[in-house]
């Protein structure tokens, strides 16, 4: 009789089973149903709450288990909370994601708060944040897990003041969902003042349409190389600015791997020289590794990546 085993053993055993197993075990008898509901689920890599696009519904995944769609209403929130409470009393997650789906927020903040009660989360990810309402909801959710690292992907322009007031996150991405990828058509631009505020506050940055000068790129390299923690940026800028910065260090199209120019070493030659890899050799803490995507001596825009770790 497995139920005759010590309670501490049964609870440890329940931490080792999959969510699908919990669903099956709880249907066996009332004793197992009680054990499942009152025991901790253990550790899982990921869970996500996902709002269906252009639909008044949502679903959630935990571990490898996918659950049916629920209506985004008081009744639907109550049904999903009842199911969650019948499956475990608590859970530990490496990653918990909230995907808002579209710009019409239907997820109830109070529902998400109750759903994540007794959760231990290492990383939170807020995907496709498309409105100020969703961003405010995101910021409040971050306060529920103050020790948790957070990633935020914005697909709208909240304004400079809002971005400056955003608390530090692990990764901040700012895109635009309603314009073409060509930066010349974008309705907003990140100037150098805002860029350096974001660079100083957040660990990883992924930004489009950044208006910086060649001197700003040099300053960015020095800031990243002086960091003791991992630092990463990926920005889209004008190719002419990158070319001016490279020329100021006597780096031209005829570079070769291993060449040293001023304070930089050419670290890689990729493809038909469409990408350029550089290493800053005067780092005060960690070497800054730089990759310029595309030919910087052509017209248009390009992406440049800087990081201080291999």
In short:
The chain is an alpha/beta fold and 310 residues long.
For the structure shown, list the relevant keywords.
elongated; 310 residues; alpha/beta
Biggest β-sheet: count, sense, barrel?
15 strands, mixed
Q: What is the helix fraction of residues, given as a range?
A: 25-40%
For the CA atoms, what is the radius of gyration? Answer: 24 Å
Element order: H for helix, E for strand? HHHEEEEHEHEHEHEEHEEHEHEEEEE
State the secondary-structure class: alpha/beta
Question: Mean pLDDT, as a whole number?
Answer: 89
Strand content is 25-35%
Uncertain ranges: none
Structural account:
It is a single chain. The chain is of the alpha/beta class and about 300 residues long. The protein is about 30% helix and about 30% strand. The chain has ten helices and 17 strands. It has helices at about 5-15, 20-25, 30-40, 75-85, 110-115, 130-145, 160-165, 190-200, 215-225, 240-245, and strands at about 40-50, 55-60, 65, 70, 90-100, 120-130, 150-155, 170-175, 190, 205, 210, 230-240, 260, 265-270, 275-280, 290-295, 300-305. Strand 13 and strand 14 (about 265-270) form a beta hairpin. Helix 9 crosses helix 10. The termini are far apart.
What's the arrangement of secondary structure elements?
Blueprint: H1 7-14, H2 19-25, H3 30-38, E1 40-51, E2 57-62, E3 65-66, E4 70-71, H4 74-87, E5 90-99, H5 109-115, E6 119-129, H6 132-144, E7 149-154, H7 160-165, E8 171-174, E9 190-191, H8 192-201, E10 204-207, E11 210-211, H9 214-225, E12 232-238, H10 239-247, E13 260-261, E14 264-270, E15 275-280, E16 289-293, E17 301-307
Parallel strand pairs: 1-5, 5-6, 6-7, 7-8, 8-10, 9-11, 10-12
Antiparallel strand pairs: 1-2, 2-3, 2-4, 12-17, 13-14, 14-15, 15-16, 16-17
Organism: Pristionchus mayeri
Protein name: F-box domain-containing protein
InterPro entries: F-box_dom (IPR001810)
């Amino acid at each position: 009789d497995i139920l005759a085993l010590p309670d501490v053993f049964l609870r440890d055993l329940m931490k080792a089973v999959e969510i699908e197993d919990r669903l099956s075990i709880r249907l066996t008898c009332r004793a197992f149903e009680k054990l499942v509901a009152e025991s901790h689920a253990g550790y899982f890599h990921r869970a996500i709450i996902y709002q269906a696009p252009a639909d008044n519904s949502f679903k959630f995944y935990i571990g490898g288990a996918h659950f049916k769609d629920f209506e985004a209403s008081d009744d639907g929130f109550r049904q999903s909370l009842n199911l969650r409470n019948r499956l475990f009393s608590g859970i530990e997650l490496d990653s918990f994601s909230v995907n808002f789906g579209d710009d019409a927020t239907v997820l109830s903040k109070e529902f998400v708060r109750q759903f994540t009660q007794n959760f231990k989360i290492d990383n939170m990810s807020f995907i496709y944040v498309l409105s100020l309402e969703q961003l405010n909801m995101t910021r409040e959710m971050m306060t529920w897990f103050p020790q948790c690292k957070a990633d935020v992907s914005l697909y709208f322009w909240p304004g400079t003041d809002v971005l400056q007031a955003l608390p530090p996150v692990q990764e901040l991405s700012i895109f635009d969902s309603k314009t073409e990828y060509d930066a010349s058509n974008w309705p907003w631009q990140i100037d150098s003042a805002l860029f350096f505020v974001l660079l100083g506050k957040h660990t990883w940055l992924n930004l489009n349409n950044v208006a910086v000068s060649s001197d700003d790129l040099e300053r960015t390299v020095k800031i990243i190389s002086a960091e003791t923690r991992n630092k990463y940026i990926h920005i889209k800028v004008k190719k002419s600015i990158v070319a001016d910065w490279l020329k100021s260090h006597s780096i031209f199209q005829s570079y070769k791997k291993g060449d040293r120019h001023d304070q930089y070493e050419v670290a890689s030659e990729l493809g038909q020289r469409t990408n350029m890899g550089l290493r800053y050799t005067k780092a005060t803490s960690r070497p800054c590794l730089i990759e310029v995507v595309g030919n910087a001596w052509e017209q248009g825009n390009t992406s440049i990546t800087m990081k201080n770790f291999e």
